[in-house]
Specification:
single chain, alpha+beta, Heat Shock Protein 90, nine-stranded mixed beta sheet, 8 helices, 9 strands, globular
């Protein structure tokens, strides 16, 4: 898997964009209104959307579609509802992001329950478990980029805001940079 030059100043952001891929597709279907991104030092971030949540259905391989999306290359394209735009909206896939994280915690709110799974370097470290009942819907990914592979990378708020302005369409996109206290909100009406 080639993600580009690791010394590229935008590599951290390029990987983080993959966490927005499905939510943006959901927004195009009118099912997601907001993506919130919280940035922390050390290549750590939390991405939360209010879409329908990743699919929790069990696939033909006996794992949830959410786990397949997180662990199997090219599964992002199969999860897209706008297949003709999959290449434009999903470069590497969230699988690449997960593989390049020392840890990633996935929480899905869907079908009346909270679902949870953790990963290390793209490999599940827990089962995909159903937790408490909830009326909430959406997905949260809390991640830490693997600095042993990527080096001392950091996210660039200005690059995220630029991406949001170019791609938000009808989404509200909120970036909170805990490193500086800066909060930026972007909403682009189509």
């Amino acid at each position: 898997m080639y993600v580009g030059p690791l010394d590229s100043p935008g590599i951290a952001n390029r990987l983080l964009y993959e966490a927005f891929c499905i939510a943006r597709d959901d927004a195009m279907c009118g099912e997601c209104a907001t993506i919130e991104v919280e940035l922390e030092a050390g290549g750590r971030a939390t991405v939360v959307d209010d879409g329908p949540g990743l699919s929790v259905a069990v696939n033909s391989h006996g794992i949830s579609e959410a786990e397949a999306l997180m662990t199997q290359l090219y599964s992002c394209r199969h999860a897209k509802r706008h297949a003709e735009r999959a290449d434009a909206l999903c470069d590497l896939g969230v699988t690449a992001l997960n593989a390049l994280c020392s840890t990633l915690e996935l929480t899905v709110w869907r079908d009346g329950f909270e679902w949870h799974q953790t990963y290390a370097a793209g490999v599940p470290t827990s089962t995909f478990d159903r937790r408490a009942a909830t009326v909430r819907h959406g997905t949260r990914m809390k991640l830490a980029l693997d600095r042993t592979i990527l080096g001392p990378v950091e996210f660039a708020t200005d690059m995220l805001v630029e991406w949001a302005r170019a791609n938000a369409e009808t989404l509200k996109f909120v970036v909170l940079d805990r490193r500086t206290g800066e909060r930026v909100e972007v909403r682009v009406e189509a």
